[in-house]
Structures are given as structure tokens and as C-alpha cells.
Amino acid sequence: MIQIHFIINPIAGSGNHNISKKMLQAFFDHNEYEITVKFSVYKNHTTKLTLESIEQKAQIIVACGGDGTINEVASCILGSPIILGIIPLGSGNGLASNLKIPKKIHKAIAIIKRQDVKKIDAGSLNDRFFFSNTGVGFDAHVIKHYEESNNRKLFSYVTAVFKSLKNINDTRELEVNINDQTFKVKPFMVFISNSNELGYKISLTPKASLEDGLLDIIIVSKLNPFKIILFSFLMLFKRHHLIQEVKSFQTKNMTLSRKDFNHFKMQIDGEYRLIESNTINISISEKAINVFA
Ligand SMILES: Nc1ncnc2c1ncn2[C@@H]1O[C@H](COP(=O)(O)OP(=O)(O)OP(=O)(O)O)[C@@H](O)[C@H]1O
């Protein structure tokens, strides 16, 4: 019997999915799979549920939600033989889209039942992990405003972008150490990605691969309002690197540090996090997690 656990985020995306134990049971042969279904009932509850599933000897844990839910499940099973399944119920679903996992529930389940395993890389940031992307600056502001909106839809991301434009002059100097170069920057954004998609088919790092053992970085120094509009427009066509303030890198590790503050306001896989340290060490673990894709 294969022990398969589903951990469902009921508020992911628009929150109006009808996924239930009864519905899932209909897809799986009772002689082959033993199904356990859990719902998260508060923020970060998924971590506790996943740790319980590991204790309960789950062989497959399916994250049913967006990048934030995947992050909570995958961070717990990293480096273990447990296989991650994904049913994309989120708003952006960047990682699922990079893995070509369809949003239709029955199609995502077909991928789990096919049992083709891919090993993908995992990023780490001090003592946390990311599987899709992380960043400091404009993207972190956008995620903070998005979470405050209490509505997880594309429109909320667009509103959050406009609200974040008010904070654009709040750029403090960072020291960046990457590929044996050290330099200072007042960033509009430092964006670090494992995946080639942010969600909604938008990408800041279109050449990134989940399997190349590298992180794709873009560092954008302070932009004036005209350049921000130009940057946003070019990003839609994946041409933002044409702006001179945008520098692209690929690396296995990097460090961000700052002297004036002892914290970083970051987004990690689309969730706002305050990291209490004046140094951020970022690296990648190659092929660290097994995923059905
Ligand atoms: N019952 C719940 N009530 C409130 N928050 C929850 C609950 N269950 C999970 N969460 C939180 O929801 C957040 C994750 O949302 P998730 O990323 O899965 O969806 P999304 O933001 O709609 O999708 P995406 O990140 O792909 O845009 C996490 O911070 C998680 O801890």
C-alpha cells in the first residue's frame, strides 16, 4: 500500500476549490493507495501537518495550494525519500507552472498517479528554504501589501504593485558578494530565483532551471518612476534586462549584508518574512527534493 497524504490549504487562490477526501478517493485505487487528507486551519499550520505526516510514515505528501503551501511541505521533506506531489490551488502557482503541472485538479492527480519523479534543486536562505524564489526590495513590498489585502487574486497583486510604488525611495544600501565580486548597491530589488516563473506566466528569470544547480539572480539598482514603468512593461515581454540598471547573474551562493539595520524585509516563495539578521547567506542544494512532475 502506498501511503499518500494530501495537505490542503483552504484559502489558497480564490479559496473556492471543492477538493475533499471523498473527491480524492474517487481517483485512487483503494487496493493500491491509502489516503490521508488534512486541511490547514491557520497560517503556517501546514508545517505541523507535514511533520505529523512524516511521523505517520507518509511516502507521498501532496501540497494542495500555491507556492507558500509547497514551501511549507517541501521544507519539511527536503533531503528525505518522501516524494512531493502538487495540486496547484494557489493564485500565482509559479513553481507548478514551471514544472508543467496543470491547474485542473484531475490533470494534476494524473501526474501524481503517473509516478514520474524529478529531482529538483532547493534554495536556502540562512535557516530557511525556498523552492521558487526569494527577494529583497520591491517584490517584498508587493507581497507585504498583497497579504494585507486579504484577497488572493491577480487583482490584489496589481493593487499591491501600485501601493508598493510609494515605498520605492526606501532603498537602503546593501553589500552584495557574488561570484567572488563584492559591490554596494541601493537596490530597487534583489531577486533570487530557482524557478523560471513568478506566476501568471510572468518571469524575471526566464533562463532559470530547477535542475541546473544554479540560482538566477537579478539585481536592479534604484530606478526613477519612468524607469519603473519601463521595467514593468519590458518584464511582460521578458526584456527587462535591456535596462542598464538590471544586472543578471547565475551563482551557487551569494551573501547580502547591511550595516545600518539588523533585519531584512523579504519575500520567500511569495510569503512576506522579516529576517532578523544583518547578513543573508543564500545557496543552492542540487537535486534536493523528489517531486512528481
Ligand atoms: N486556514 C488558513 N488560514 C490562513 N492562512 C492559511 C491557512 N492555511 C494556510 N495558510 C497560509 O496561506 C499561505 C499560503 O498560501 P499559498 O501560497 O498556498 O496560496 P496563494 O498565495 O494563493 O498562491 P501563490 O503563492 O501561488 O500565489 C501560507 O502563508 C499559509 O501558511
UniProtKB/TrEMBL annotation:
- Name the InterPro entries on file: ATP-NAD_kinase_N, Diacylglycerol/lipid_kinase, Diacylglycerol_kinase_cat_dom, Lipid_Phosphate_FormReg, NAD/diacylglycerol_kinase_sf, YegS/DAGK_C
Q: Does the keyword Hydrolase apply?
A: no
Source organism superkingdom: Bacteria
Q: Which UniProt keywords apply?
A: ATP-binding, Kinase, Lipid biosynthesis, Lipid metabolism, Magnesium, Metal-binding, Nucleotide-binding, Phospholipid biosynthesis, Phospholipid metabolism, Transferase
Molecular function in Gene Ontology: kinase activity
Q: What cofactor is needed?
A: Mg(2+)
DAGKc domain: residues covered: 1-129
Against PROSITE patterns, the record matches this protein to: DAGK
PANTHER family in UniProt = LIPID KINASE YEGS, SPHINGOSINE KINASE
- Can you say what this protein is called? YegS/Rv2252/BmrU family lipid kinase
Q: Which organism is it from?
A: Gaetbulibacter aquiaggeris
- What is the taxonomic lineage of the source species? Bacteria, Pseudomonadati, Bacteroidota, Flavobacteriia, Flavobacteriales
